[in-house]
Amino acid sequence: MSTTIIGFPRLCEFRELKFTTEKYFRKEISADELLAAAKELRAKHWNIVNEKGISEIPSNDFSHYDNVLYAAFL
Questions:
Q1: Over the stretch 15-49, which tens digit does the pLDDT of each residue have?
Q2: CA distance 73 to 71
């Protein structure tokens, strides 16, 4: 049987993405640092899902800021 989930919570376990994005908005970090942090979080999420035995790992469920805005542009 295949298993999947709709997606991983966007803000992360300890709201890391929220705090990193706010640092970027305040110009405390660069765009490259924001993208690097987001890349690490995506990898962490994929690994967690994989470790839990989910066979169909969701993709394109990550948003840096606003899921609804991303969906509107799609």
A1: 888 899 899 999 999 999 999 998 998 888 888 88
A2: 5
Cα(74)–Cα(2) distance, integer angstroms: 27
pTM given for the model:
0.73
- Cβ of 41: how many Cβ atoms within 10 Å? 19
Between 15 and 59, name the one with better pLDDT.
Answer: 15
DSSP state of 27: T
Query: Which residue intervals of 1-74 are DSSP H helices?
Result: 16-25, 31-51, 67-73
Q: For tokens 């300890």, what's the residue?
A: 14
Strand partners, 4: 56
Asked if residues 71 and 27 have their Cβ atoms less than 8 Å apart, the reply is no
